[in-house]
Amino acid sequence: MKATKILIVDDQKFALQMLRDTLAPLHYVIEEAANGAAAVSKALEFMPDIILMDLVMPGMDGVEACRIIKQDARTAAIPVIVITASREKDKLLAAFTAGIDDYITKPFSDKELLTRIRANLFRRDAIALMELKNKDAETVLVISQTITSTLNTQEILQHIVRKIADHIEVKRCSIVKLSEDGYGFVLASSDNPSAKGIRIELSRYPELQEVVRTRTPLVVRDAKHHPLLDDVKKYISDIEFDTILVIPIMHQHEMIGALMVRTSSGRHTLNSRELRFCKLVADASANAIKNASQFERVLEESDELREIKEKLETELAEKAVYESLFEHASEGLMVLNARGEAVYVNRSALDILGYRREQLLKMTLTDFLAEESFQAGMENHMNFFLGRDFRKKYDLLFKTGSGEKRCVSVSVSNYRLEGNYAILSFMDVTEERRAQNQLAEANERLKGLDHLKSEFIYTATNDLRLPVAVIHSNCTQLRDSETDNLTGMQREHLDAAIDSCDRLMDLVEELLDNPSFDSSEVELSCEDKDIMASIQEVYTVLAPLACENGLQMNIEPLRDSVSARFDSKKIQCVLTNLIGNAIKFTPSGGKIGISVAVNDEELLVSITDTGEGIPENYITKIFNEFYHLKSTNSSAKKGSGLGLAICKRIVDAHSGRMWVKSAVNQGSTFSFALPLSR
């Protein structure tokens, strides 16, 4: 409770000291003024609860000072007690005319002074309270007039919360409607009219849950530290409010909502008068809110009934036209209810299913669904009527009247007839589906045969590659060695053999690069192998070719053996292709290096050359099928453009990776990585 502030005014210092000595022990807050002018200034600055003022002072006396104070609306309510002597009765009458509230004559006792102070303060508070109650009554009257003047629920509620917030000066006033599923809905909020309809979880509002439980008003002071709100402190830590008031809105012993008031931080807490005012407004508005809500519901139901009537009349007017159109439609049309009973079928549906109309209208979906389609058809039918996702078009097998099964393409309409019926349209696609199935089976057989053919060609050709390369290398070495002991005919035969090997090697390369080979269908025969053995085997075959082209080729192993899990024949194909490309695109006098490295997870193989290099804008394209990189080496033979694509597919099939680093006129490094053995 705040201390009472008193302004004492006297031109004599000993009089001021005497008053201070009397009042100070009672913990009053004292402020002094030495004349009337100072008193007027101090009254505005200090805003005391009561003024004790000497009547006779030099300059502006107590009468004039009192007149000025009482004429100012800011200070008019402050009680003024003048201190006077008996001979100053004429001035005392003038002081009462100026508006003083009481007087005390000199000399006076301490008890008399304190009694007069308390009496005037009590009278001031009583008058102020009476004025506030009058304002409360006026506000309630205005709210009542609004309630009785409109049936617009939203307008009523918004007016109520705005009036309460303005009248008692709070941060927020809201009205919440409660539901039975643990949620509430904001009906109106003083600081945000657009908050209407926002759903709130009651578990986040313990104060609201407590009022629902007790049906009595609740005041939570110092909300952020109140034990009732311990579970939601993390949600309210950043919200500026201090006190929460929750008042139930009751109607015939039923709690239909709650009035929630929050004060901002720093404001004085809600007092008993303000609590009574809020309770009075809540009670006064309950009946009107209930009546207005019911009236709105009646209006909504009337509008809904009118719309249904108009829609029904429209549908009845169009029914004859629709029935005529449906009856002669080329597709079968059927209307089913939720139990799967046929309530309408057209002529085409009867022809497809082979039933008479009177027969089919007595059947349900379960009667003409074949066993193979029973589950799919019934599940889709249930999903449609339960509001779940359903298939709008699919095939079903129907049993006909003759016992035959027919495949029909069924379409389910999104449109729901009044009374909740499903509309099905269907066509007999039995012969079409049979032909499609036969074609699909034939295609699968052809794919299988084509795959077997491709695998056979690839396997046989790959087995030919190394022997042909060995023959070519040996024949070339024999021709380039001393051949004086050979006859002319023998030399011609040797040259013919070399030419034939060249053509055969070209044919092998073309067959291996056949575009029908698909790495996604590669059947790998993987084992734990030593990569150095595979590299040495390919090196032995291609080293003479490199030497013939004036190239220096060597292997730089990390160690004697490096194991990984791979298909040795497939990886030898990759090595042969990469090393062969290096030989093809490296000018005479260049170098080719084969290196091996390992890290924690992969085996890395790199083939480095000092050839022409690859322009940067071509690097991302060279692994594409049928892509040819133009070479400045006129003697380099043009390939099929599939070699690098096949290499990458083989590496990918091993769950590996392949890449290239290159610079024009500086050479290239083709690398691939394979997972290590585990």
Instruction: Strand order, main sheet: write it out.
Output: 8-7-6-11-10-9
Structural classification = alpha+beta
Number of strands: 23
The CATH topology of the largest domain, please?
Answer: Heat Shock Protein 90
Give the CATH H-level superfamily of the largest domain: Histidine kinase-like ATPase, C-terminal domain
Report helical residue fraction: 40-55%
The rough form would be described as elongated
| Poorly predicted tracts of residues | none
Number of helices: 18
Number of domains: 4
Structural write-up:
- By secondary structure, this protein is an alpha+beta fold.
- It has 4 domains: 5-132, 3-Layer(aba) Sandwich (Rossmann fold), CATH 3.40.50; 153-297, Beta-Lactamase, CATH 3.30.450; 328-426, 2-Layer Sandwich (Beta-Lactamase), CATH 3.30.450; 513-675, Heat Shock Protein 90.
- Helix content is 47%, strand content 20%.
- It has 18 helices and 23 strands.
- A 6-stranded antiparallel beta sheet has the order 8-7-6-11-10-9, with helices on both faces. The protein has a 5-stranded parallel beta sheet with strand order 2-1-3-4-5, sandwiched between helices. A 5-stranded antiparallel beta sheet has the order 13-12-16-15-14, sandwiched between helices.
- α1 links the parallel β1 (5-9) and β2 (29-33).
- α5 (110-149) packs antiparallel against α6 (153-168), α5 (110-149) runs parallel beside α9 (272-327) and α17 packs antiparallel against α18.
- The longest helix is centred in the middle third of the chain and has 56 residues, at 272-327.
Layout of helices and strands:
Layout lengths: L4 E5 L3 H11 L5 E5 L2 H11 L3 E5 L7 H10 L8 E5 L4 H10 L3 E4 L4 H40 L3 H16 L3 E7 L4 E7 L9 E3 L4 H9 L3 E3 L12 H4 L7 E8 L2 E9 L9 H56 L4 E5 L5 E4 L1 H7 L3 H4 L4 H4 L5 H12 L7 E7 L5 E8 L9 E7 L1 H51 L7 H25 L14 E4 H18 L3 E5 L6 E4 L1 H17 L6 E8 L3 E8 L33 H11 L3 E7 L3 E9 L3
Helix pairs in contact: 2-3, 3-4, 5-6, 5-9, 6-9, 14-15, 14-16, 16-17, 17-18
